[in-house]
Fold this sequence. Notes:
303 residues, Aminopeptidase, 25% strand, five-stranded mixed sheet, Acyl_CoA_acyltransferase, 11 strands, Acetyltransferase_Eis, globular, N-acetyltransferase domain-containing protein, 6 helices, alpha+beta, GNAT_dom
Amino acid sequence: MTIEIRPITRAEAKDYLRVLPWANGLPQEEPEPSAWYAGRAANPPQRKATPEQLDRYADELLTDWFRPQAAFVDGKIAGGSAIVSVDLTLPGGRQVPMGGVTSTGVLPTYRRRGLLRKVMAAMLDDCRERGEFLAGLSASEATIYGRYGFAPATFQHRWEVRRTDVAFRTPFTDPGTLDVVDGASAAAIWPVLHEQVRAVRVGEVSPLPGKWSGLADGGLPADGRGPAHHLIHRDAGGQVDGAAIFRLPWSPDPDYAGELQVDAFEALNHDAYRALWDYCSISTSPNEWWRHGGRWMSRCAGC
Length: 303
């Protein structure tokens, strides 16, 4: 068996994509619902990429910010991973380059052979050569990465709360205003708001190209959770200081009918934070649940 670890060429892009769980339709999550996922499924549904999608993904794959490495076994791509270039906010507001690990997978028939270890070593060497002295990821399977030198840097939380069981501890009067806007307005608001938030939030990362491109159409997600609704908060002076994206998926189960799922949430101050959560907590019928799936991250390009 001959093993080679190297970057892929454009002609090899589709073969690389076929080893990745999010493209080949194989499960890629731990048994419990992921913190970032607002839905109820333990493993969010996977759909195998169509030939047309693979062609489009391959055209978008090889860029300056996306750097894949593949493990070739006897000339065939059996596994791979990639680094995306982002900036990370440190305490004090300084932003430094970071290599974000993403798009990782090894075909089931080639596991337990050390392929991913070799790929990770190649990627970290590449980061060092480019001056990216930090590497990070948002793990879908957290037990994997400790063997490669990674350790927890922060935590995500998943909340499932019945509205009637919680309330604000003290009365709250919002000095600003809330509004539900369309996708086009949200697409203009989120990039500006995110830049403001990440300048002051330790551990926040810069958005990848195309991060906000899907907001304007407000389409249905692949898992059938219904269309996105865009909530924004403005301060007393009319400036946007918070936003949230939520869904109200239909369910045949009466226990979950009217459930509100929060996909994205950003706030610059406590007033915006409380006002947004106050709205989300009263937007369902009195006996229903609302859920927050943690920090919003792109599934196939987040780190």
